[in-house]
Amino acid sequence: MAIDTRAPARSDHADGGTYRIDVSKVDTAVLRRITAMAFRFPGRMAAGITATVAAALMQLLVPQYLGQAVDQAQGLLAGAVSGRTDRDAAEAALWTTAGLLLLVAVGRGLATMAQNYLGEAVGHLIGFDLRMAYYRQLQRLSLSWHDRVHTGDLMTRGILDIEGVRLWTDTGILRMFYLSILIGGGAFVLLGIDPVLGLVALAFVPIVGVRASFARLKLRDTWLALQDRMSALTKIMEENLGGIRVVRAFAAQDHEMAKFDQVSAAALETASRRVRLFVLSTTQMTFVYFLAMAATLWIGGTKVLSGTITLGQLTEVLAFMLILQMPVRQIGWMINSIARASTCGGRLFNVLDLTPSIADAPDAQPLVLDEGVVRFEDVGFRYPTWAGDSRTLSGISFEIRPGRKIGIVGPPGAGKSTLAQLLNRYYDVGAGRITIDGQDIRQVTLASLRAAVAIVQQEAFLFTASIDHNVAYGAPYAMRPDIERSTQTAQLHSYVSGLPASYQTLVGERGVSLSGGQRQRLAIARAILPAARVLVFDDSTAAIDAATERRIRDALAHFTADRAVIVIAHRLSSLIDADEILFLEDGRVVERGDHNSLMALGGRYRKLHDLQAGGGQVADVTS
Amino acid sequence: MSATPTRSTPPKPPLAVVGSQIEQDEELFGRAFDRWVVVRFLSYIAPYRRRIAIGVAAVLVFTLSQLAIPLLVRAVFDDALGGLALADGAVLRAIMVAFVAVVLVNYVANHLMETIVGETAQNLLFDLRRAMYGHLQVVSLTFMDKTEVGRLMSRLQGDVYALQEFLESSIFAVGDLVLLFGIVTVLLWLDPVLGALTLSVVPLLALVRIVWLPRARRAFMDAREASSATNGALAENVHGIRAIQELTREPLNADLFEEKARRNLNTHLRASAFTNVMIPIVDTLTGAAMAIIIVIGGAMVLNRESDIGVMVAFLFYTQRFFDPIRSLTIQYSTMQRAMAAGQRIFEVIDVEVDVADATDAVDPATIDGAISFDHVTFGYEPGNPVLKDISFAVAPGETVALVGPTGSGKTSTTALAHRFYDVWSGAVRIGGYDVRELTQASLGRHIAMVLQEPFLFSASIRDNIRFAKTAASDAEVEAAARAVGADAFIRRLADGYDTMLEQGGANLSLGQRQLLSFARALVADAKILVLDEATASVDSYTELEIQRALKRLLTGRTALIIAHRLATIRDADRIIVLQDGAIVETGSHHALMEKGGLYARLYRMNYASFDDIPADELAAALDGGQRT
């Protein structure tokens, strides 16, 4: 990581995932850091700054040539237009001025092009680096951190905040050079022509500059407010359309329209306020500018009449005002750019500077698989406090050998899924240890651990891609026969081959939508394809009917024959054949044994079994 | 982090991709002018006619005052200072007074124009969005069923935004056009020869832009596409992080993402090059125009064919005259986009409403809770009826379970009871009234619905429970929650009943969401309950609570239930077995079991739910039905 990490390292474990950044405060450390990033492209930056200086200097020459031209034409008029030689000389002078002007215009154009292009290019290069760093960082940060952070927030950072930082080179650094040379140089020349007239002509600069800066910052505030209101509106509309049946069912259209109108009116109000603010500032700036021009003309005119300055010099002053008009307004943009880069950079670095709490230990070795024996040794765990969760797990011990199967049951919240999460280091254990073939899972590399343990989730995330790609997500080199073998095992093959585009059918967002059961079967196919040594089913058949589940289990038999399997389920039929069943309650194992011994025990397991034995009893229990 | 990590990767896996593999919607570059869209649009503009008239007048005044300023500068140079004739201060003063007056007019017109344009544009956009949204509240569910929310949202937001861009810039485009004509006229009027010569660079610029535009636009579109592909891949990395980390796809995905990010970089660099290459061209042409003015104008001054002030005015005008051309060419693309956006917006607004209140629809205060279907035939596509001549009656207070395999017409039956759709023939009656004689608001009040997927809004738990009856008191809300057994878990939440539900109640379990939707129906306190039981299995403990809550909900109500749970089915007063849109059996559980028909066969298969039954076993059961 070449990203300069000046901020002290923070672990993502302690990170609450929400950041409040004071948008009104400029963080100079952040700005310095972004600026340093730009100078990681020293050649381009040097060229960009050179071009910027050249463009500003040439721009400063234009008014002088214009003034010169007026004086030359005027001088011809003034001097007796008698001799032919005078005339020729005068015409030649005009030609020279015109030529120089054209030359300067071309040069200025080229320099400005170089300035803008290089500024934007460095910005895009920074953007590329940041985007890659951000993407990799998101991959590294622990899953529990991801659970706490709002996904929309992460997207905003990855899109808008990178954009804000990217623009800094162009609209911040280079523009600063340009504006200081142009305005400073312009002031120098103007004051040189005539101090009084120069001051009058420059009067608009501070007024417009300050006004523009304040207006920009205020506009930024209203923009942020407007964004907030628009996203509130979006949320209302999205929910309404998504829940349109509920809305119709309760004939709540009027209520919903009122809700919409209220938020919409507030958004419109903010939008209008923003328009008024914007208009007020721009028109006032134009007004002040023209007033300064009037004063310049008046005073300058009087001076021309009294012979203090020439007509050409007055032209020059006016031309200066003309070329300074836009740059002075850009002071506002620059101030805005400072505020934006500081906020965006701050938000971005907040994520980039985190250190993943679940990461390879410094001396981590790849897991060496022998048999594939999993051992939980007196495992304890306390849920992190930010989760507002006071639950704990304690004293969990068991061993699974290849070909054996452990079942885990218990009421909701007993900590069943947490066991699976500990095994692939979603969290780290708080006490005891988990080993695979005798190696503590914290001492091996994450990649090798996760390659050895496959967890079948309850909810399979569908990537917006073809089905074969989705199935082969964890084994991208898999060939078609392997893919089909795993979908056959998961009882998904016949459904997929029945689709018009078969395995090329697109699923996921905007693709063909799969039912809950189909998704779970896809999750199973996906998990078994990489052929991991340890297989965990985390309530992954809840949406699959019992008969299909049985078929999946039969098909899996040859696959699980030499693998350690953990089945977490609330449907007892899913784990009835387990070699050992742990009944978890409040984070402790309260009953353990195989199905028969637990039934004989007549405890909680037995009660749960009776509850589930046929839908009939459910009704009986309730009545 | 280097820009090019050289990792020795094996050949790229053939299947691996990141980001959506579904093509983005091609940007519609339709006609720049679509009569129909414009006509439709005008009707929305109508309420703002007066303001727009003032705005247009302000644009004209503003443009004229813009044109006047260089002319006044010229007057200062020629009439007050010019020549050698010693002009006196009085002329200068007079011109300066005029100058200040023009500046004032310019300010007022500018302010008026921009405020009116900006605010009217905002109002119009909000009007259009509201019209679309309001219409979506009444269009038939058939339309809503087949349209993705995302697509509608892109019309409500993206297309409205495209119009906003257009509206805000269009009035200035008018100003630019006027300014362009104004400058041309003034230049030719000041000095026809010099004017014509100076203006000769304008067609040159137009020519350059015509060559440049299509290429540049392609480059801009490429950049935009690359951006959205990159952001899509990033979104996948955010949403699918669990699968990515668990299946250790990190290194491969980072490589794939880098390709996208690099393409994004390259297309943006190209787009940037296209934008900036225009700068030296415009500058060169401006320089050329100024050079022409100096050489030709200077010679004219020399020959006393022209005044020095004319030359100065020309120099001032050249600073401005490329602006209108630049913004007008940009305006053309904006206009194309706006037309396409307008078309999509009006498409939504024009979707026909098939289910609407009859003019003489009634809203009785109370009804008796009877439901009857009288020879109802109905379908979603012409010629393909889903329900075929169905007749049945549910007495007030009776609980009827609808069962049958997927596609047998259960959902359609419940939807018709609420008049989500209109029947093709026959009639559906609620409390003795044909549903078409009742207002939809009345149906909403008398029928409470619980959908299979409990849908919750991003609001407090309290507001979610009283969604159906916003006037419900806190006591009513809590009583309902207690009745369905939700009170305990609600109180355990940090803010109790005021806990805000995020993203559709993602912070609650499925069972808890189910209980809240029961509480919501209980608060509605309607005579009739239409319930689509959830199929997803929840753990046995939650299952118990749900069954208990359901019993409480059914007490004293007429209920039509699409039942999946055997317990629910058996407890029903009567069971209607549907198959292929027709009623095949009806009766109590015991009666049907004795009869030994489809229901009995399905029941004996001993599945937790009728929807669970695998297709082949179901086919066998149905076959058995035909044989009998």
Report on the architecture of this protein.
- The complex is a heterodimer of chains A (623) and B (628).
- Chain A is built from 20 helices and 12 strands.
- Chain A is α/β, with parallel strands linked by helices and 623 residues long.
- Chain A has a domain at 374-457 and 534-622: 3-Layer(aba) Sandwich (Rossmann fold).
- In chain A, α2 packs antiparallel against α10 (311-352) and α14 crosses α16.
- Chain A is elongated, with a radius of gyration of 36 Å.
- Chain B has 3 domains: 31-190 and 333-354, ABC transporter transmembrane region fold (Up-down Bundle), CATH 1.20.1560; 192-305; 371-627, P-loop containing nucleotide triphosphate hydrolases (Rossmann fold, 3-Layer(aba) Sandwich).
- Chain B is built from 22 helices and 10 strands.
- In chain B, the strands form 2 sheets. A 6-stranded mixed sheet of chain B has the order 6-7-8-3-9-10. Chain B has a 4-stranded antiparallel sheet with strand order 2-1-4-5.
- The radius of gyration of chain B is 36 Å and the shape is elongated.
- The relative contact order of chain B is 0.08.
